[in-house]
Amino acid sequence: MWCASCSVRRPLVALLALVAAGCGGAEPDATPDVPGFDASFVDTLSNTDTGPLPPPPLSAQRTQWNPAATPTGQVTALTELGNTLVLSSELGTLTFVGGALVGMSTEVRSAVAAATVPASDAAGGQWMVLVDAMGRIWRVRDRGALEDVTGRYGLGMRGLRSVAAMNMTVTAFGGPQGFALANGMRVLVWNDTAFSALVAGGGRVAALTREGVKVFDPMTQRFLLYTLDGVSGVALSAAGRLVVTAGRSLYVEDASGTLIEAAAATDRLGGVVRAGDRYWLLAGAQLASFDGTRLRVATDLTLSQQTRLIGSPTGDVWALSGGMVARYAVIDSPDERLWEEAVRPVYARRCVPCHLPGGTGNLDLSSYAAWVRNRANARVQVLDRGAMPPNPPPLSQDDRTSLARWLTASPMTDAAVDATVDASLDAGVDVPRDTGPLDAPRDTGPLDVPRDTGPLDVPRDTGPVDTGVRDTGVRDTGPVDTGVRDAGSAFAPTFAIFQSACVRCHGASGSLDLSTETLAYNNLVGIAARGTACTGGNRVRVVRGNAAMSLLYQKLDGTHTCGNLMPRGAAALSAAQLTTIRTWINNGANR
Question: How are the residues of the chain apportioned to helix, strand and coil, as percentages rounded to the nearest 5?
């Protein structure tokens, strides 16, 4: 056994010295419990007087997540699911798919928190949610429509500050009154204000305190306090193990529940976030990454020390500073780096909306993996036949040259790239890739069936949860009445106007096809303008919740600053028709 008094284990070299001195006969497998940990790394430390060679600098690349340079305003929160990204700013809620803006709502501005969490209904899956300044919880639906789902959680907690997925069924919420765990049927609330700004994962919840890190484990129904000076950040692995930054050191939690110093830096470390199987943090003002064995610093990337990092399930990291958003990645594949540079910007300008998920082209090309699978076909359709894009104007020579750089390049064989992509797809976008000891499976059983396994014997146990907990009981999980009408009913009156006034020009043969209800909706709502007269201002045809900002309505009521008044060459729409369209848009532009 290790020394019972060691609640935090100091550097690995000192740790090995303790073992050699007989502080406890540690077995060979008592190594730091981190993803992909290599036991030979410890052997290297123990067999040298000068310590291990410093790791090479981190090679992180800023990726082009917004190639169309769509204005976002001052961003306060973001979350993502697959190829969908949701940003909240003073402009409203912006939804991007594959780097292209597909929807915008002004119902919620400057959300205080955002996360992708387990769905709170019988349908299962995941929801992208926002928490607004009033503590209300909003679900972001298809193409950016918002649904108030506060009633599903029954919290009544004003000033919510944080939200995170605790496991595949439970969501954690934190605020100044305490924290809550909800699974869609039952809500449990604890009056512990230390968890106002919480993190969650692997069936546990954690938060920073003045003494160190406090953890709550619902399975044991106990709070644990890890005493540590100068703590600046905490993250939880997919299996619920702690990763903590304090001073210049990074600690990981081993299988016995003890924090071990796994890495050290020359500068003070900032907050740490998990992104897939990688942990991102700041070392001074430089971006750094911990992959489970070593801490590497991107010496060529300097950020503000006030930058807030948000992990991406892809392994990338978002950097939010002064309301501006940047995305960084460690892209090992030269082929993917070339795709990011040469293909993604053209895709966002010319391939949306037809090739979004569910787009009219019936082929999703919103990701690198999708382009790899369709590489040969794209080469034929775009370069050889010139058949894509089918709508005018044709691709510029610059765009053709850019696409050709990737479509005709072969830095590695297509088969090799396909195998790499297929492996990641087989794993699933929402399946954690952590495979090291840190992520050994934990029991994340039902929220309300605790299994008492006894307290850990190293961190200080602050006692069982027997006071301050409120069980709100079983809740009705039926649908929340948000005023959203059934599919097909909300859009029908507006589509009837299009049929009478617009399809003579915007029929199946036109550049904007409004010939059917489905095509009209998919070609308007959240779709960027494509005509040459109006593309320069990043205008959107229909902006959910805001008729005044919608190019369609501007062209109908005469407030447009580009293009022509519509219907062109025909009588203007009546006041009643304009009211119908304006009301439909302002009410969320629903189907």
Answer: 20, 30, 50
Task: Give the amino acid at 126.
Answer: Q
* Tokens 């106007």, residue located: 497
Model pTM score: 0.62
CB burial readout 78-106, b (16+ within 10 A) else e:
bbbbbbbbbbbbebbbbbbbbbbbbbbbb
CA distances from 433 to 212, 236, 273 (A): 28, 14, 15
Strand pairing class (231-236; 469-474)? unpaired
State the CB neighbour count (10 A cutoff) for residue 353. 22
Which residues lie below 8 Å from residue 22, measured CB to CB, with a gap of 6+?
A: none
Residues 6+ apart with CB under 8 A from 20: none
> Tokens 């076909």 appear where?
377
Assess contact for 591 and 490: CB atoms under 8 A.
Answer: yes
Domain boundaries defined on the chain: 335-411, 492-586
The CA distance from 159 to 433, in Å, is 34
Choice between 576 and 510, residue whose per-residue pLDDT is larger: 576
* CA dihedral sign of residues 202, 208, 211, 216: negative
Is-contact 270 469, C-beta < 8 A?
A: no
Query: Each residue of 95-124: pLDDT tens digit?
Result: 998 888 888 999 999 999 999 999 988 778
Note every long-range contact of 332-337, with CB atoms under 8 Å and residues 24 or more positions apart, other chains counting.
Answer: 333/412, 333/417, 333/420, 334/411, 334/412, 335/372, 335/406, 335/409, 335/411, 335/412, 335/417, 336/368, 337/61
Q: Which residue has the tokens 């912006």?
A: 94
Q: Do the beta carbons of residue 372 and residue 379 sit within 8 Å?
A: no
Determine the residue type at 456: L
First to last CA, the chain: 64
Angle of helix 397-407 relative to helix 334-342, nearest 10 degrees, comes to: 170
Does the bond joining 389 to the residue before it have cis omega, within 30 degrees of 0? yes
Can you tell me the distance from the alpha carbon of 301 to that of 2, in angstroms, rounded to the nearest whole number?
A: 40
Say if CB 519 and CB 360 are below 8 A apart.
yes
Mean pLDDT of 124-144: 91
457 class by beta-carbon count within 10 Å (0-12 exposed, 13-18 middle, 19+ buried): exposed
Tally of CB atoms within 10 A around 125:
9
Tens-place pLDDT, residues 161-186 = 999 999 999 999 999 989 999 988 88
